[in-house]
Amino acid sequence: MDLRQLSYFLEVAQHASFSKASQSIHLSQPTLSKMVRNLENELGIVLFDRSTRRVVLTEAGKLVQTHAQAVINARQQLLAAVEDLTEMRRGQFALGLPPVIGASFFPKVIADFHQLHPDIAIHIVEEGGKRIEQLLLEGKINLGVIVLPVDEGLFDIIPIVQRHLNLVLPHAHPLSRKRKVRLADLRDEPFILFRQEFNLHDRVKAACIREGFEPRVVYESAQWDFIYELICANQGISLLPETICAKLDTGKVRVIRLIEPSIHWDLAIIRKKGGYISQAAQGWIEFAQHVFANRQ
């Protein structure tokens, strides 16, 4: 039994005539009759009473008509659902966003995407970059946004933002009047960093080690505003993204943008290499790429 047999049977039942049904579907009457006869043989029942001028459904034929119509309707619903997905009329995906990155870059991106595609649901998972990588590998989320680098053997990488970290100091700090600061000059400073599960933590630490010292970390936090308040309280210094520094009250802290060597803070969308990517998720990647390309 195939869907064509059911479809042809329903046409004959609707028109109560093999000749009219054959004209409707542009199929020769002998071929149509053969297809219906094959269906009857397969089911082991007679579907039509052919003894009268009009073709009349038997009791068995009426039963098959009900179920055949349900099968055809289900096929049409399946095709419509698939079309909705491929045409991005609906869908869903899970997106991993570190809190700092999410708050700084993505509220408008997500809102604008939702306006274009209101029936695509984005489930946002707020975690640090390392946890996002783990969730991607476990298949628990579909996409993540992280600070590079990541293992290119495990993830497909779509770069979207290139920025630098700025130095944030208390106003009374001896280096606060400088326009440019060498990273090596921070050798003896108390550092306040994001927690270890954030890629920014490793980014700062690795940059300091390349300059010949390991930073002395006195506090760690997952919240940029708490880091800012600790700096205001003269508890240490930090290296923070430009987007966060733009929110700081420069009457309370000093932001130095020129660090030598500069510490890149490059963002990328990542997905598990070789993993399935839905049409909705792929559409969001392309949308985000377009948005950030126009912001550069």
TrEMBL record:
InterPro entries: HTH-type_LysR_regulators (IPR050950), LysR_HTH_N (IPR000847), LysR_subst-bd (IPR005119), WH-like_DNA-bd_sf (IPR036388), WH_DNA-bd_sf (IPR036390). Keywords: DNA-binding, Transcription, Transcription regulation. Residues 1-58 form the HTH lysR-type domain. Pfam families: HTH_1, LysR_substrate. It comes from the Bacteria. Transmembrane segments: none annotated. The keyword Transcription regulation applies. CDD domains: PBP2_CidR. Gene3D superfamilies: 3.40.190.290, Winged helix-like DNA-binding domain superfamily/Winged helix DNA-binding domain. Belongs to the LysR transcriptional regulatory family. This is LysR family transcriptional regulator. It comes from Paenibacillus spongiae. The lineage of its organism: Bacteria, Bacillati, Bacillota, Bacilli, Bacillales.
